[in-house]
Amino acid sequence: MTESFEGDAVDQWRTELEEKRAEKDEFFAEHPQSPIPPDERETFDGLEYFGPDPSYRVNATVESHDDPDVVLMDTTAGREMRYLRVATLSFDLERADDDLEDGTFELAAYRLENPNERQLFVPFRDKTTGQQSYEGGRYMELAPEQDLEDGDEIVVDFNLAYTPFCAYSETYDCPLPPEENWLEIAVPAGERFE
């Protein structure tokens, strides 16, 4: 069951989000494994972000796939990577467009073919892709504390959506979100990339 999210919890969430963003900016600026090319790090002054928005932190209902399908994801280098579609996450999001109603949306969650892996990989595109966010889509990683079963709930926080490293350097090869994870709405949360 997901925790209540209001008042002090929102304030704490916002503080922790800002701290994570500051840590990531420091990593990108100074760490030897930063995806920012070494000759550009001195002028790097931080990543671009959408403002923190708790309405893009949602509870998703899990549909678990006991016998997961293999999904071949194209990569930025023209290869394919094998993932397993282990769950479908259903959630409600408010649409920013005045003429459209709120809706329920789905994203598939994947894992590499590793039986010890619990972390979920959720790559996605949305209506900000290629305009306010990276043209190759963005990623989220979810770390459930236990194996997920049908009907479980998990927090999906789009404020944690990030740009893959291949946006900053061609030395990285990143999977592209499959079409089943293309959202037909704008999600102005998480990292920007213009």
Automatic annotation (TrEMBL):
Signal peptide: none
Annotated region described as Disordered, given as residue ranges: 21-42
Family matches, as Pfam families: DUF1684
PANTHER family registered for this protein in UniProt: DUF1684 DOMAIN-CONTAINING PROTEIN
The name this protein goes by in its record: DUF1684 domain-containing protein
